[in-house]
Design brief:
Shape: globular
Oligomer: single chain
Strand order of the largest sheet: 1-2-3-4
Number of strands: 7
Helix content: 25-40%
Largest sheet: 4 strands, parallel
Length: about 210
């Protein structure tokens, strides 16, 4: 015997049916976080036209946070980058030719141009094995006109700000995680020697 009035056999109302949940799509979830400003949109762009295309995407799609990576051609459009509030991560900031189609770029001059325009930027190794070269990259930027304090910030606090972890690290402040480096001269000088390294409050290295 069929139930009457849309009820189950025991007389209770028939339970509604719901559509199945859509399959999880991690890429779309990440894009939603980008559009909501929870995550930055990270774009690797080298030439000025590529960088301008990324800025146009930021404007047209109303992307709140844009990080331009390896922006070798950013010096000539630094004001445009500043106007839109994008940030930059620079690699290969070394006194050498990039070769090929990038031969006319001067990576060492880009940091000073960005600093003059007020663009937040970080100097990064790009590869783990290049991490020991970070002080040299910062020194090369100073040699091309960047203020030394701005170079140090590009190695420390600004990267933390771009990654969204500045409340926990990136500068020496109460409650933050930090390794303390003590040198016998300004860090970016060629003759600077490390005397002491403190990690988690304990000496990890000390000149005897």
């Amino acid at each position: 015997q069929k139930p009457e009035g849309g009820k189950d056999g025991d007389g209770a109302p028939k339970r509604p049916t719901w559509p199945k949940a859509p399959p999880e799509d991690l890429q779309k979830e990440a894009l939603l976080k980008v559009l909501d400003g929870e995550l930055p949109l990270r774009v690797e762009a080298h030439r000025a036209d590529e960088l301008l295309a990324a800025l146009r995407l930021m404007r047209e799609r109303e992307v709140p946070l844009l990080v331009l990576e390896q922006a070798y051609g950013a010096a000539g459009i630094a004001e445009r980058i500043a106007e839109q509030g994008a940030t930059v991560v620079l690699t290969d900031v070394l006194p050498h030719s990039l070769g090929g189609v990038y031969e006319h770029f001067d990576p060492c001059a880009v940091p000073a141009a960005l600093a003059r325009a007020g663009v937040p930027f970080a100097i990064a190794s790009g590869r783990v094995r290049y991490a020991p070269l970070l002080p040299l990259m910062a020194a090369a930027a100073v040699g091309a006109g960047l203020d030394e304090s701005a170079a140090l910030r590009a190695l420390t606090l600004t990267p933390a700000e771009i990654l969204g972890i500045a409340k926990d690290t990136g500068s020496l402040a109460s409650g933050k995680y930090a390794d303390v480096l003590v040198t016998d001269a300004p860090l970016l000088r060629s003759d600077s020697r490390v005397l002491l390294v403190l990690a988690k409050g304990r000496p990890e290295f000390e000149v005897q």
